[in-house]
PmbA protein (Thermomonas hydrothermalis), 455 residues
Amino acid sequence: MNTQTHPSIPVSDDSHARLAALAATARQLLDRARAAGADQAEVSCHEDTGLAVNVRMGEVETVEATRDRGLAITVYFGQRKGSASTADLREDSLAATVAQACAIARHTEPDPCAGLADAALMATDLREFDRWHPAPLDAARAIDLALAGEAAGRALDARIDNSDGASMNANASLSVYANSHGFLGSERCTSYNLGCVLIAGRGEAMRRDGWYSVALAAEDLETPEAIGRKAAQRALDRLDPRPLPTGEVPVLFSAEMARSLIGSFISAISGGALYRRASFLLDSVGTRVFPAWFAIEEDPFLPRGFRSASFDAEGVATRRSMLVEDGIVQRYVLGSYAARKLGLASTGNAGGVHNLQVRANAGDLTALVGGLSRGLLVTELMGQGVNPITGDYSRGAAGFWVEQGRIVHPVEEVTIAGNLKDMFAAIEAVGSDVDPRSHVRTGSILVGRMTVAGR
């Protein structure tokens, strides 16, 4: 296989010129929409490049280079809305895309909540947050990194008998958002991901696990050797699992699993679920949902944050603020449409939340395990068993049984169940062992009591 390809992210950085070209296209489309009679319009343009390699058992399986660009335009004729998109940036295609969006708008029913976000909310302080780190990574180098990770893991122990492979991915994204309020903002971001999944044991005793590192700058990744060895050790730790009896016990979610609990909370206080009356946390602002010490802060201005931004997907200025303080829900997560449906104002969250920090009140995972007399440490979750309307929670899980402050054996094929409202109220600790691989920055979370259904 010929692995000599163009770098996924060029050595010479022409990102400013490419952003300027996207901005010029966005302005052109706004002018076309205005000429076509639209009262309001908004345009999103993007350009993405990437490289992905996969290896397994010392051999290269796939090498894929990608380059993608496109735009979407939304026009408003009064309260009637039409949208169209294209990946073809030629003049005739741009004209046809605007015409299509206008035609759709003229044939839709008016929606009193439709329209751009309020002009007064547009961001004026446009900054970057150290999220652009292009690196001269070509296919050959990416393959070497993936192979090194897999080799280090396979060499750790003779019981690592197989591999699900290792991968290296690099991506660079440029985007521009503009609207007829006169707002135009641009963003650029790079990301790198190196991971490995290994298999320990043989036959029916085989167990698999993995590890990965993700960062905005390539130099912030963990080394391939460290990733491979950690993947191998995690697979080895899962050998010889034992069943559990059904009962109610404390459940400690590792940091990477704890993110899903925070994600369920964010979904429940987000606009779409609220105005559809499809959330178990309706009318929850001002009420205590978590213990009195619990807090979640949103910080869109975090240097090298995965979701740092000066503006949201509608151009609304982002702001640093508390989502939860003293266990009390402080606000919802809203874009302009949902806000109007609810009779509220946008919170600068069109497109989702930015960087979240869950406040810790305890030590790291080792300390949390050491404080358990008995309980379940969850390191893997399966299935989608969360009812967003009632908050009922039931998911397959795997992990480790803890007694007298120490892990005694691995566990699999159990179900953990409860209700998210009760689970949130029963949180006893948030660890300091923050998993840095996500925009949801939380340590391990200990829920004081849940039902664990074993065999």
Q: What stands out?
A: The CA atoms of residues 102 and 123 lie 27 Å apart. The radius of gyration is 24 Å.
